[in-house]
Amino acid sequence: MNQTELLAPAGNYEALTGALSAGADAIYLGGSAFGARAYADNFSQEEICEGIRYAHTLQKKIYLTVNTLVKEWEFPALYQFLIPFYEAGLDAVIVQDLGAFLFIRDHFPGLSLHVSTQMTITGPFGAKLLKSLGASRIVPARELSLREIITMKRTADIEVETFIHGAMCYCYSGQCLFSCNLGGRSGNRGRCAQPCRLPSHVEDGREEYPLSMKDMCTIHLIPKLMDAGIDSFKIEGRMKKPEYAAGVTAIYRKYMNLYTALKQEGKEALYAVSAEDIQKLKSLYLRSSLSEDDDEKHNGRDMITISSPSYNGADESLLQAVRKQYIEKPVRKEVSLSAVFHAGEQAVLTVTDGITTTAAKGDIVDKAKNRPLSEEQVVEQLRKCGGTFFTVADVQITMDPDIFMPVSRLNQLRRDALKAFESLFLWDDAVKERHPLPFEVDSLSDRAAVQKVQSVRKEQEALPSLKGTQLHVLVTQKEQLQAVCHTCLEKRGEAARLYVELALTKDPSVTELFSLYRQAGGGEVYLALPYVSRQTCDSECRQLIELTTQGFIDGCLVRNMEMLSCLLEMNYTGHIVTDSGLYVWNSRSFAVLQKYAEESYLPIELNGKELYTLIQNADIRRPSLQIYGRFPMMVSAGCLQKTSGKCTHVPGYLTLTDRYRKTFPVYHECSSCYNILYNSVPLSLHTLLMNRTFPVSVGRLDFTTETAGETEKVLSYFTALVRGEKRQPFYQDFTTGHFKRGVE
Known about the structure:
By secondary structure, the protein is an alpha/beta fold. The protein has 23 helices and 30 strands. Residues 456-466 have low confidence and may be disordered.
């Protein structure tokens, strides 16, 4: 049986030492920047480097979270941020941003790259693509079943790290814009305000907490998870106290060791978790109650903290016991010392842990003139290891009688020997010294890029219209598709490209409308593929390929790495466009996606200035942006229809109303089994067209809840704006999203 790593969280140095003392094999932590827990205590540069030394001395590992999306001008800071940790021997980074991923790979070649769960890798195709780019480990979406994880690991032949305990997001990580759109605090920048923990009600039901997940607990599933060959078990909790990290780690270490021992004896059936230990887990800062469901559980009311999302509190006596056992007395590496002192020769001190050995030489040993050095004095000085990561088990002394050496020289000999011994654990055998490859800032600064764009805009102000601007349209209902065809036929609206949700093609009459759209003067027809692709990915790809081959479809809009990689493996010959959820926050991530796709939609979290900078630095020839429509704030495996006890397995909309009486449409996509929670009002960037400050070549109108009549009006209105007319929209409620404010 492969050795499974136990990976513990640390929000501060106490949590790091406590979790290692409790039996963690590795620690993941965040520094002062670029981590997805901006409000954790986090570590200073000195603490991380010290933590690396400590962990390596114990032959454990340290992983650094670099799992936020990175803005264009932040790469110099990222480079400087990583240098001290890289040179100190950091074992791996956990990364979300594709551009940051390739940047770290290219400039820090000795550093292992772990794909963050925020990249939403849901299957073997996506895992294989990331492996080809340099990933050594995948942290898949938390929603996956054990069967899916095993398939990913075996098919992609890559390390897999899975969460086994702690808080859960309701939304697929990385696919949540709820917090940023309600208050500007982006989860993709480590600043999630957790609006999912607030009260709301589904349809006309009572006020509850339908988006608040119970905390995960898989202690009963340890045998299944270990037998599956998962490489690393990850405990959530960088925001929690050191006692939580150490206490939970200790219990999982206990049962991982127990199952390993039973397995070796052929007594696996005797594995059982005591009620006492379950109670301990419930007493360590867990939310309401534990979700101990089967690993195949996908969604349901019993996974939600319906009545309250708050923590139950903790057992203070348990916390004190954990602190006393693991935190107040951090584990030290046990070593044995042997010293040789011969008059007229250099003193020699050897350090060993039974496997690794090193020695240090000191000053010449003197002949005693008055008071010779006793063996007891030598042993006393050599045992003094305070301030180091070692504790001395025993000391063997070989010495001449009547010798002398000052205490200061004995202490220096001990320090030199322990330092030499410690250095043996700081580096991988293959990398004795690491220095990053040079990095030159070759991109435009934020200010320079904006000035360049503004100068171009001034030259264009004399033009009668925004020449070359195209409108694309995305429809999610058949009636909207009919409305677009009708509007184009009457020449009241122009749509150069039509995106149609894949699920609509189950209705055979929809493909007939594609021909009508083209006859009406419309342009290309693309299928919009699911936001999340899991076990049905290959069948969806085959359906797309068939429609493309038959001439109904020109290309597709891809929304996840799994589908993108699947299409590449199947040698799809149609056009590929990536949606804004495959994040392009910087020119490097854009360059990665452009190897596989012809176009990429820009993200909605960047403000106008940041978009200008990105367009210029990435030299994007055909920048595209959603300019109208409700955008997804959550894409979730959770099903509100099922949670409310009204599941019909029929796709459709229901409403979620928050405490401020704002109503959010929620679409239950049953064919792919996920929910899409849309914003309460549509995005509308019409003022950009009116003021001739439109930064992109393509503006997409997304229709979700709109009626056929509303669809026609919106398309006609934006067509008029593109033609140069200036008039206000007929709708009153809308948002400009992040175009003005952006996110931190």
